Amino acid sequence: MKLIIFGICLTLLINNMRAAPVDDSSNAQIVKYESENIGIGGYRFAYETSDGIARTETAELKNAGTDDEVLVVRGTISWVGPDGITYTIEFVADENGFQPRGDHLPK
Fold this sequence. Notes:
By secondary structure, the protein is of the alpha+beta class. It contains one helix and six strands. Strands 1-2-3-4-5-6 form a six-stranded antiparallel sheet, with no helix packed on it. Strand 3 and strand 4 form a beta hairpin. The relative contact order is 0.12.
């Protein structure tokens, strides 16, 4: 009887270990990095990490020197969620505020 209970507990433990993703983010390494500061007019950067995170961002100064001057920032960020699905957000931040878009975000 003890052997049967042990076997059931061991099976449950193994199944739970397979179902739970391992969070290895503390050991993530940067596998790609680009950065360009183009002065007052804006910037660009991009990076990717070994745990599946990727981000790009560009900024451009529009209407420089006028009352309508605004820094327009565009970018994307993606990551792998605990469910194994890759999530991506595309965004714009400008005179109209922060505007994110993603398939997983409410419309």
